[in-house]
Amino acid sequence: MAGMSGVRLRGLQAAAHLNGHLAVCKGFDEEKGRWLVQLENGEEKAIKNDNILQVLEPGTCISLKNGEVLHITIGRVSVLNQMEDEVREALLSDMDQFSMTHELRAELNCPDGWPQFSVVLTGGAKEVAAAHKALPAVLKEYGLEIPGPSAAAAAAPAEAEEGKDEKEEKAEETVEVEGLVMKSMERRERPSRKR
After folding, report:
1. Does 68 share its domain with 11?
2. What is the dihedral of CA 105, 108, 96, 132, to 10 degrees?
């Protein structure tokens, strides 16, 4: 695991109230044999490797320093590695332009040895919030679609309407993950084996 990667805490017994909390991993403490993580409230903890969930859902946000730093999980590093050099350079150029437009620092965060990458927004809390809303549109041009705040707000009324009809009619749902399209269907009952 690498420094400055997003993680979720789990399985803690002495501090069970922290289970499920998001944090940013700052690195490994050799003396303690634990990972040093910073929680969203700024508190730092030393956590065992077994108590850290290393892969987060795309769009997961970790807000630090009262909203002045926002760590947004985007997806797997393999997606970036598969980009043509020209496309990746264009993405980096667009991120620089995005930084200037929103008057903050926006950077791709790809820690060594980490399977996911993120975008880290750093600036004033208002600028970071505004840039967070605009980020999905910039990334979409490169096939990096993440659930953004604007998409979530638009989907909320539609989801409420769908919830009414969901019980009456179960439609097939397709989910795309890293180019693999899967169809979600009803559970099938399988006969038990008798020995």
Report:
1. no
2. -60
C-beta separation of 2 from 25 below 8 A = yes
Domain range for residue 34? Answer: 1-54
Question: Last residue of a domain, which of 10, 30, 54?
Answer: 54
Distance in angstroms (rounded) separating the CA atoms of residues 90 and 139:
11
Q: Do 94 and 82 meet the contact criterion of CB atoms below 8 Å apart?
A: no
Number of domains, the chain:
2
How does pLDDT run across 85-95, given as a tens digit for each residue? 999 999 999 99
Residue 91 · residue 83 · CB < 8 Å: yes
Coarse DSSP helix, strand, coil percentages of the chain, rounded to the nearest 5 percent? 30, 30, 35
Assess whether 21 and 66 both reside in one domain.
no
Q: What is the CATH number of the domain that holds 12?
A: 2.30.30.140
DSSP letter for 174, please. E
Which neighbouring-strand residues pair with 181?
Answer: 176
pTM for this one?
0.66
